[in-house]
Amino acid sequence: SFFNKIIKWFKDIISKLFAKQSSVTKTKYCNYYDSNGKLLWSVSLKGTFTYNHRKAICVSSEISCDIKDADWKLLSSSSAEQENTAVGNFVVKQYKLGVPLKEIEKTLTLTCDKNGNMK
């Protein structure tokens, strides 16, 4: 009946409003290769989020760097939580015989929506 449909509709809304929190963890990678396809370094941003169909919140973020080639050095790295986004910043620099050649500065982001979908 119409009355039962309305009750079901209200129950659906209430269950969404008071939904149990879930959590999700995701990692995003930034890999850098030379012209021969050899991996020189890899930086990853790991974010953990809670969500409950009303909103998502980033509860932790972590950035890590794996340098595979001695010519490259990590100059700086940091991560932060901003509402439903994990943000990671890093700077790597290439040196040949102590001479600075190339510097790469990047920002990685992970965003979670209220349903736990990541981008």
Defining key terms:
3-stranded antiparallel sheet, 61% strand, 119 residues, mainly beta, 6 strands
Shape: rod-shaped
Segments where pLDDT lies below 50 for 5+ residues? Answer: none
Strand order, sheet with most strands? 1-2-3
Number of helices: 1
Largest sheet: 3 strands, antiparallel
What structural class results from the helix and strand content?
Answer: mainly beta
Radius of gyration, whole Å: 21 Å
Could you tell me the strand content as a percent range? over 45%
Mean pLDDT: 93
Task: Kindly state the percentage of residues in helix.
Answer: 10-25%
- The CA-CA distance between the termini, in Å, is 41 Å
What is the succession of H and E elements?
A: HEEEEEE
Number of strands: 6
Q: How is this structure best summarized?
A:
Helix content is 13%, strand content 61%. By secondary structure, the protein is mainly beta. It is rod-shaped.
Q: What features would you describe in this structure?
A:
The structure is a single chain. The protein is mainly beta. Helix content is 13%, strand content 61%. The chain contains 1 helix and 6 strands, in the order αββββββ. The longest helix is centred in the N-terminal third of the chain and has 16 residues. The mean pLDDT is 93.
